Amino acid sequence: MKQGIDFYDNVETTCNLTNMKTAFKFKEFIWLVETIHKAKRITFAEIQERWLRSSLCDGVELARSTFNRHRDAIQDMFGIYIECDCQNGYKYYIGNDEVIDDIIVLLLGDKFKQSFSEEELKTNYGYPKETDQELSEWDCDNL
Hints:
Helices cover 67% and strands 7% of the residues. Strand 2 and strand 3 (91-94) form a beta hairpin. It is mainly α. The termini are far apart. It has 2 domains: 1-95, Arc Repressor Mutant, subunit A, CATH 1.10.10; 98-143, no CATH class. A 3-stranded antiparallel sheet has the order 1-3-2. It contains 7 helices and 3 strands.
């Protein structure tokens, strides 16, 4: 009987660890999009420097293979294209930058509105144009 309890405890622990890893990956994706979006154009070396200064790195460098997997996951999850300008110093940029503001609002909702002054939202983001209800309806209609 004790083995059954240990088994279920291990399953619960594994599920909790999986959820924590997923949440951490999500934070990494958001950090990467935000870093590239703010920089407009940025090299991998500059991303690496900023990564090492971030609280997410835990002293571990961002491997190029991890970066590329993150790019793919971000495209799949959010529809955000992280492109590389090979002609001008191999700088990364958001290929469809116009979707960023919509995604931020959809992800953060009320928290997004509370993070900025009303004037900043109107000036920088053309927000608040829609209510949370309208954004929710937009989200449902466009998924």
